[in-house]
Fold each of these.
Amino acid sequence: MIRLQIGFTIVLSIALLLILGQKAAIASFSGGLIAVLGSVLYSFIAYSAGFAAAAELLRRHFAAEMAKLSLTLIAFAAFFMFYREVAWLWVFLGYLVAASAYWFGLLIKFDGKK
């Protein structure tokens, strides 16, 4: 799913670069990067245990989701504090497009190969 998020982010950024220019492309790439970083953090926390009891897996996924949410909120707050001239619409669009990759990923048939 993370590769799909990265792909969606790059495609959107290139499209916005060609249509609206550099400012919109950088903003959308930044929003997508926030989503990708959250997903990477989630993966590290949730899947670091390998095989474990159901209660432990549930605890890890809950902790991973809370860490992802916290990172996302902190990243958006820091981004808007330090980069005040940003086109916020494109930041949120980049985030939403990258986050939607999860739902598109569910439509892809998985055969177990990398």
Amino acid sequence: MTSPDNLPSYEDLAASNPLRSQEEYDEDELGEDVLDRGYSPADRPLAVNDWGVTAREGASHEDLAHRLRREVPEVSASDEGDGLGDTIGTDGELIDDQVGDERAGRLVGWDTGVLDAGYDGDDYWARDVGIDDGAASAEEAAVHVVPDTRGALE
């Protein structure tokens, strides 16, 4: 057994730790700096009013009527809407060919050489480099891919 006289002092232990707390996660070991990745919090608290959050509710059982009321109904083919927008039964924004279903990732400017060939259109060219760990800003999350139906440039 170790006697209390043989234990190292606090000064010895503090001197033996070469890293400060902010240096413990070094980007050389992890491949990237954890603090530079970013975090986008949710718009509102999730599941705060759901059943089972409190200790009393967690210890008891939810009755079938409340559980069925909380379930999200399955969407059938007849529930796809009226073609007037993204909500059912409202006069929302019209759906047109400029609305894409697939979300784009981060867009980076792309120099294609088209402007050198005499193209004087108003289009901007970019390439998709993928979604950045789900930490997209609201503006980036609003960008969707629209398939090009016009064909190649002539």
Amino acid sequence: MDTLPGCEILGSGYNVLNGYYADVKSCLSNLFNFGDDYQTVVVGSKSFSMPKPISYHSSIGTSVQSISGNSIQEYSSSLNSKTKVEGNFPFFSSSIEADIGEASANSLLNAFSKVQYRVDLYTLQLPPYHTEYLRTNAKKDIDTMSDLTVLFDTYGTHYLAGLIMGGTAVYTSVTDKTTYSSEYDLSIVAQMSYKSAVSSISASEEQQYKESIKSFQESSRISLNTTGGDPGLGGVHFPDHADDWSASVINYIAFIDFLGELSLVGIWKLASTPERAQEILDFYPTYCEQKQKHYGSDGPMLRARIVPLLKRQFNDDGSGASKDLSVCIPDIGGGWYYLGQVAFPGGDARGNTLVVQEIYPGSGALVEVQKWEKLWDDTGSHKSKNFNLWRGLAFDPVDYVVLSDFFRGGVDNQDAPTKGEAAGIKAVSVSCVVPAKVGSMIWNDIGTHASNDASVWKILPPDQGAIDSSKIEPYYVAVGSHSQPNRPVCYLQRRVLNRSKGPAVWALRAQTDKREHAREMKKVVETTENLFIRESMVTEVLVGRNDDVERVGTFFGVSFFAPAVVLTTRTLMNGKIWVGRKSMSTGGAGELKTGTPARVDVWTVDTSRLESQPETHKLIKDNLKLQHMEDGWNRKAADIALPSKTSGQIIGTTGYEEAAAQVLILQDISMQPFNNSKYPFNVH
């Protein structure tokens, strides 16, 4: 007699963080042994054997459930809503990547939904006092294993205590928020779209949701997958054979869902003592932080450049206003955009502003300004030209903002900004900005005799968390009155990484371009007249008879003559540098990671002048003879396991010195220092 499907995985450890949602592929080692005492259960017309301690409940029925999220974080949270796994982490990331795709998940422009049609047959649960069935080796590891990372890697952070068996069809969609339009909740429309696809939608539902379904299907990438049931009737065949597939589930039973909140239980609940349970539980968030998959706007999404304001776009000449106003914009191109006009109290364009572009094109950090909302115009002033103020709005005004308002002056109409006038302005994701402050007034309409009042105010960055404003001119906010605006304003943000660690590893995670900065600073140094760049470790400063500085000596015996020397601090690390056959110790703080290879900034190399040089397998294998030891060179051949597939392991480039370099490699490759577990060198 066959064992009842599901019994073999009930009690297994489960990879909730990077596994699939309700999938046998994410089950790890089974922690329990229920013995050899079996009972018989009947499912449909079939009889199965099942360990007596396991709780079986017949639960025949069908259901349709749906979840959705306006971001991948919301979707992940909805996915976890049934199990309520502890912590705010992106659980079941393999399902996200398989159903949605990593690129789609990382885009801020997408919304996500999942409709699950279930054919339930029965449920299985662990007995109330299941710890008595815990396997001896699992109990020992849970109680004594010192490396909790290994413990979680081996058994998972949770174990499977309850499950639903049957068959399921999952209808997953990735929806473009910029084109999708509906007054109904996304999860409802997704469910109606599923019903329409399998011809189960009622006439009243079709009439009510017709336009929403059309917009949803035109704006979405949809996939449909089945688990359980006859494979020949599932998958792409399911919409035309849904009823036949459902009837076949009894013959193809699968694990299809979790059984509520108690389905996944933390393995710390299996510890023998409260102290050990607390120790494991305390480590759980740390483990999740280390192992979690990052989606969406976790990293920098924009690179920015500071550019001059070269163009005065509009001014208030002829308006009659007592104050003068000019609005200026930068020249843009090459995929760069600006975030709004800059306003000045009269005069020509001056100062600098930021232009930005997405680090990952299509990530959704920048979107088009969809419409302009009028804040004021000078109707009633009876001037020959028109003047007006506008506020830009994206397709989603909650998740995207236009950082500066828009002034049109000296024009022939009171219309919204034209495409040409607003070309290059982008709305930016709120994940890239921080709340800002309203500063002093720049301009008001006093003197225009317009029917309505208006004023323009500076936007100032907050005290912390924003881009340094000392090098750029502020954006502005307008209001239909002479009072300070009370609507929210924003500023481009920056973040500091690794604040929980020491200051040496702090880094700005700003929406700015570090690569561009490095490139520009390198250019400045290289082109400065009478400045020469030399790199070496200075070991002594040599003075003359009158104690005046004459030169500096380096570790490699090269001297540099100079009438003055400036000494600066060095990076404190504990390691050893090898140049050919000569080596030297460095630093003393003990912070250098073992085995870290030397790195070259790819932006400092002109790769267009290089050609690819594939790895030479025989050369490497024939010369991996020596093993570097702490006290010198071990001249015995090292037993080093090379990979069975070496293609692509080591690849470099060749320049003008190719021939000479090959001779040096052939002659001296055996002198490369490395650890047993590492390759002799890395080329990036």
